[in-house]
Design brief:
This protein is α+β, with helices and mostly antiparallel strands. Helix content is 60%, strand content 23%. A five-stranded antiparallel β-sheet has the order 2-1-5-4-3. The longest helix has 50 residues. The protein is rod-shaped, with a radius of gyration of 27 Å.
């Protein structure tokens, strides 16, 4: 292969080296961009979930303080209907004792916020919010979310955009060929 390469003219060698370097840089750039896009989307989803948890905990302040189970259960039923990707919840009092737990994958009020698992098929995160009013701790809420569906939608929409672009390029090329003929 090296003998063949050395038999080419310097211009041909430069062309192939520049082409190889260009494709390498393009691959590195695309990989870097996709990783940045993925981490950005994950960050935005986690921020959105954290805001929802904060809003939910503020709404339930009185019910948590009084440990009003019917109000907590009714509110949780509404939350499950609005957010089908909610897979577990736990409400705790100021002593961190569970008042209400729900779901197949129940989070704990005592652990920190963070990504629980990440695989190509499953992204599960838990958000926790301590309910503090006028400097006093009244309890906490932990919600576990399955983010697989939002990321699947993002991946599918990106695939559709790529396929649409390829079809447009093919149609454009065919159109140009027809004009030339």
């Amino acid at each position: 292969m090296l003998k063949l390469f050395s038999s080419w003219s310097i211009g041909t060698q430069a062309f192939w080296v520049m082409l190889l370097v260009s494709f390498t840089l393009l691959g590195v750039g695309v990989t870097s961009f996709s990783r940045t896009l993925y981490s950005s989307q994950l960050k935005h989803l986690e921020e959105d979930i954290e805001k929802r948890t904060a809003l939910f905990s503020t709404t339930l302040l009185d019910a948590i303080i009084s440990e009003d189970l019917p109000v907590l259960e009714t509110t949780l039923q509404g939350l499950k209907q609005i957010h089908p990707n909610l897979i577990g919840a736990e409400f705790c009092n100021y002593r961190r004792d569970p008042i209400l737990s729900w779901g197949t994958n129940i989070p704990s009020c005592t652990n920190n916020f963070g990504l629980e698992s990440e695989s190509p098929f499953e992204i599960i995160t838990t958000s926790r919010k301590t309910i503090i009013f006028e400097g006093e701790n009244f309890g906490s809420i932990a919600l576990r979310w399955d983010l697989s569906q939002p990321f699947k939608v993002l991946k599918d929409s990106n695939k559709k955009k790529c396929v649409t672009r390829k079809k447009k390029q093919t149609k454009t090329r065919k159109g140009k060929q027809q004009i030339k003929n």
